[in-house]
Amino acid sequence: MSEYSPFNAAPDPELGQALREALPTPFGAAFVQRVRARLSQQRQRGWDDELAAWFWQGLVAASAAAILAGWGVNRVAVADQSDETTASVTTQLLDGSAPGATVLLASMTSKEVQ
């Protein structure tokens, strides 16, 4: 037993006594043989079997991650587009925000014919 685990690897005297009483000597060897035979029958799963068991869960998780990433990229792109709206040329000329707007307006409204 340690501070991280409440379990102890030492033999348990109470459990050992209960097992010895439940499995008397003539039947104890048969029980051990059955357990060992059963253990040898079970095939250990390989790494590829373990990964195959997680296939559908992994596919769903990857799909959800791709959808969320696409949604996030789309939100950023839409936010960037709304910040970069440009005013029309007419609005820029009337506001005076375009360089040379006053000169251009003066030349357009001048009545002088050359």
Describe this structure in words.
With 114 residues, the protein is an all-alpha fold. Helices cover 69% and strands 0% of the residues. It has six helices and no strands. The longest helix is centred in the middle third of the chain and has 29 residues, at 55-83. The radius of gyration is 41 Å and the shape is rod-shaped. The protein starts with 12 loop residues before the first helix and ends in a 5-residue tail after the last helix. The model has no long low-confidence stretch (mean pLDDT 77).
In short:
The chain is mainly α. It is 69% helix and 0% strand. 0% of the residues are buried.
Secondary structure elements and pairings:
Layout: H1 13-22, H2 25-41, H3 47-53, H4 55-83, H5 89-95, H6 101-109
Helix pairs in contact: 5-6
What kind of sheet is the major sheet? none
Estimated structural class: mainly alpha
Share of β-strand residues? under 5%
Helix content: 55-70%
Parts with pLDDT < 50 across at least 5 consecutive residues: none
Summarize this structure as a short list of keywords or feature phrases.
0% strand; 6 helices; mainly alpha; rod-shaped; 114 residues
